[in-house]
Design brief:
The structure is a homodimer of 297-residue chains.
Chain A: H1 15-22, H2 28-39, H3 41-45, H4 49-56, H5 60-69, H6 75-91, H7 103-123, H8 127-139, E1 142-146, H9 150-161, E2 169-172, H10 175-183, E3 189-194, H11 201-212, E4 216-221, H12 226-229, E5 233-236, H13 247-270, H14 272-287
Parallel strand pairs in A: 1-2, 1-3, 3-4, 4-5
Helix pairs in contact in A: 2-4, 2-5, 4-5, 6-7, 7-13, 8-13, 9-13, 10-11
Chain A binds a DNA duplex (30 and 30 nucleotides) through residues 1-3, 27-30, 48-50, 58-62, 64-65, 74-76.
Amino acid sequence: MAHVEITGRIPGENIIEVVRQALPDLRKSERKVAEKVLEDPQRILNATLAEASALSDVSEPTVIRFCVAIGCTGFQEFKLRVAHSLALGTLATHSVLNKDDSTAALVEKIFGYTMTSLDWARSHLDHQALGAAIALLSEAQSIEFFGLGASGIVALDAQQKFPLFGVPCGAQTDTHQQLMTASMMRPGDVAVVFSNTGQTVAMLEVATAARNGGAKVIGVSGSHSPLLDISDISIIVETLDNTDIYTPTISRIASLVVVDILSAAVGLRRDAEHAKRFEDMKELLRRQRHGSAFPVV
Amino acid sequence: MAHVEITGRIPGENIIEVVRQALPDLRKSERKVAEKVLEDPQRILNATLAEASALSDVSEPTVIRFCVAIGCTGFQEFKLRVAHSLALGTLATHSVLNKDDSTAALVEKIFGYTMTSLDWARSHLDHQALGAAIALLSEAQSIEFFGLGASGIVALDAQQKFPLFGVPCGAQTDTHQQLMTASMMRPGDVAVVFSNTGQTVAMLEVATAARNGGAKVIGVSGSHSPLLDISDISIIVETLDNTDIYTPTISRIASLVVVDILSAAVGLRRDAEHAKRFEDMKELLRRQRHGSAFPVV
DNA sequence: CCATATTTGTAGTTTAAATACATTTACTTT
DNA sequence: AAAGTAAATGTATTTAAACTACAAATATGG
């Protein structure tokens, strides 16, 4: 049988992902190389062709054939693309904050850690679930967003964005209001419940109440959790495992990006007419602002 | 005079930045190489040593000496580090959303664009201003955060974070409440005003009111703006210039990261005792959650 | 203006990457 | 099931790229 050529999803894509996806289509000894690459990409970076071949226990030309198979012109280019892909992975290496860090160091660490976590969340998103959520939200009569604490912020953010695309929606961040609103939901409505832990009692009650009324529930949490068990669609926004003080910070930012994706996708679906409405609204906002010369008191 | 060795701010740092900073300390012909690198780093990636030397109009060993001077072991490693640095810059290349993009494509584009924008914001932050803001916030009796719309979300987020480090604070997202609160502020208080445009009238009034009462004002906006003119400390959170629908989305995320930095820094300053309080609070939150077995209805 | 030190280039050496070819393994067909 | 064929892998060789030692040229200080 002829060897199948592999093409990445998007050209110039993360080479590590390309390797992972190509894995089953590779020849036996090429796969040995691929496995070593996935196992420790950093090591390949510091390795020469000879070292890489010894490491994978195959001949040098096989390593090169592997590189060609996944779409590179040779070993050199492959290494460059690995370096490219690894960039985000190493941003977080200096992420432990110290009391005597300079401002510059803090900026580097926190931005680095945030970007790395986003990259992690990106690569661990379930596209299937996301697609299902988009479909559901696109058809929804109305949407309610629920969350407490950090997740409450995310709910509010979502509520600000979705109306722009023509979906009536609300956000509830008070436990009493949440239960009331959830109880009133009916078939055709969609409840989006944010909870990083996915274990907060109030949120589980909200999800249950919404379901009992016949509404669909989209659960968003940081890992597999009770919330997801009682949701119609489960979206896991996984962030880097980090037990220190900054975890909630990261998870909310990753969730915000997921909200961006959902709202953008729903917006693209509902489309044309709403783009116009959006422009009109922007104009209204503009009138709230001054021109260039503001008379400062 | 002896040639000065250059050391990057943080080891493993963005090599492009290292080159930029090292520029004045380099030898004349090494500088020619550095200029070419800064001019078009991508080109260096696809070039061989011979090509790079021809491009810069110097000899091959000079190129190598340049690599060594900025802290690499040779040309190869230099190229790898350039690839590393360039990673974020190319994430945003596919960022125009299409109606018929797959979910996977949307995820890639929006995450990519978000990460690139964060990187941009990071490299354009004014550390000096940030340091001044940290100092001010660390000494503050109380802090009030102000914002409308997307910036209101940021204000709420900030308000959730700062109390963890022992600073009493509030967030106002209603124009009437904002003015009332701002008018009541006194010396020793700090007002943090978020406005992406920095031109919203209500926010300018708030900043002015707070100043009139003797409070210090930290203005946070996306570019130079009237708000910053009337603030004691100006923080510009610059995001990628993108006129389409998603700009507010990005700017709020970048602002959230800046809030993270401020709160982390203030937290580190106020330190020890509050770390304990923070743990206590975490424990309280934990009791709000179920254990593993939740009785699903 | 000469002497010394520093910078830059030339030429050669070494090492790594890629190619052509040979061998082995697996698969198909009778 | 066996032989032939095609595909996959390894061996040996070639090519070229990166690095090094040394020499020339330029700049610097007395």
